[in-house]
């Protein structure tokens, strides 16, 4: 889909929900945002900031190791159940964001959550994955060299057979939860409260960067950039699914790729 350059600088407003002016409805939206923030990525951002401070004080961020998909039990069956519960929670978060928008009177198609269209959603998703993923690898290497990022372990290199499909399940869950809630839900709600397109975009991007700070400052900055690119794409095209595709591809490559190629990826950590 061709988009005029001007649209990237000033997104079209034809699919933006109207500003809510009724005081009671505005209070309800603010309360809803606070509750969703506490239950999802808002509190995660606070926790990530505290983790970053703790790492810096204890061993230094550059000397720390952060596992993105750690084992949750020494008992294989319990580990599997807990991992599945964590994955299901991600899909529930995605569903919560979509449900609240729909329950608030918005058609899902009007906020970019209409039916997935593989022919028009997958190609831009793959392009976005390459646009963000490849420079992201370089940023990880630079941030590690500067001591701004922890040693990231995206996945365990040994374990039961079910880890492979589980990594894919978690990757798609991460993508759905983050893009539906942090992009579609938060940007839509902030616009309804009267924030400008750029202010809503920046807020969403900063939130995304915030809950990745447990990995280091480099990861936080990289995810802010990702949030700006993904958020603007959403504002211009009014489509969320390409973002989900892109994010899922990035995470699948990170999780599965690390497990397969970790011996050749020492530069990551």
Q: What features would you describe in this structure?
A:
- This protein is mainly α and 269 residues long.
- Helix content is 68%, strand content 2%.
- The protein is built from nine helices and two strands; from the N terminus they run αααβααβαααα.
- The protein has a two-stranded parallel ribbon with strand order 1-2.
- Helix 3 (41-58) crosses helix 7 (197-210), helix 4 (76-103) packs parallel to helix 6 (163-192) and helix 5 packs antiparallel against helix 8 (217-237).
- The protein starts with a helix and ends in an 8-residue tail after the last helix.
- The model has no long low-confidence stretch (mean pLDDT 90).
Briefly characterize the structure.
By secondary structure, this protein is an all-alpha fold. 68% of the residues lie in helices and 2% in strands. The protein starts with a helix and ends in an 8-residue tail after the last helix.
Based on CA atoms alone, the radius of gyration comes out at 19 Å
Please tell me what the overall shape is. Answer: globular
Tell me about the largest β-sheet: 2 strands, parallel
How far the N terminus sits from the C terminus, by CA atoms, comes to 38 Å
Count of alpha/pi helices: 9
What pattern of helices and strands is seen along the backbone? HHHEHHEHHHH
Helix content: 55-70%
What portion of residues belong to β-strands? under 5%
Q: What topology, given as strand order, has the largest sheet?
A: 1-2
Unreliable spans are none
Could you report the average pLDDT, rounded to the nearest whole number? 90
Number of strands: 2
Structural class designation: mainly alpha
